Amino acid sequence: MQVAGSSAIVVGGTGGLGQATVRRLHEAGAKVVVADVNDEKGKELEQELGVRYVRTDAGSEESVSAAIAEADSLAPLRISVDCHGGPAGGGRLVGKDGSAMPLENFTKTIESYLTSSFNVMRLAAAAIAKQDPFDDEGSRGVIVNTASIAGYEGQIGQLPYAAAKGGVIGMTLVAARDLSPLGIRVNTIAPGTILTPAYGKAGDQLEAYWGPQIPHPKRMGRPAEYATLVASIVENDYLNGEVIRLDGALRFPPK
């Protein structure tokens, strides 16, 4: 698949993973729409790169549809990348005081990370499906979602987050099968510990904690490595229905 001449939407595009992806796709020649809620960073990217920023709530049909429409006005929409963040409620299923985890800790996290991911995917898929195929195999585009290795081996206190990311993992193959008649591929990246600017000064402490636990290389991941994987997924037309771990062979311990 040729990136140049296509438009792309990056939901969560002002964050660490998202910004790196925006830059990578922009450099490859895509017309990129940064869909996020951080107006300051979004406008900075607009000025620096010449991309478009659209304030976007990943859980809102109207909001996501507006960002998609903006992307499609620039060039045929063929690429959707979703790496949005949000609140992640946690805690043990039964606390030390004997009380059950509040239900809202679970439902809000599911809504933020799973329901919103589904919302972006369904709307992006419908828009990509309207494009003309770009090859004689009927290919129209690709969707990249973001899970986490916590979806496989969530740690103590991560039950809501692990369930949400496990749901994103579980959607991948089914979505790829659903969309195969339309020529739309679906893949998911499951990052491990990625060091993003959002951690600020705490990043050094996290690096010191996680680095030694990662088999190789013994460091946290970099946003640019996530973006490189996105680009590889986009460009490789035979990569479909896969969940790819990006974790340096890390497996989360219980805590």
From TrEMBL:
Pfam families: adh_short_C2. Transmembrane segments: none annotated. The keyword Oxidoreductase applies. It comes from the Bacteria. Keywords: Oxidoreductase. Belongs to the short-chain dehydrogenases/reductases (SDR) family. This is NAD(P)-dependent dehydrogenase, short-chain alcohol dehydrogenase family. It comes from Rhodococcus rhodochrous J3. The lineage of its organism: Bacteria, Bacillati, Actinomycetota, Actinomycetes, Mycobacteriales.
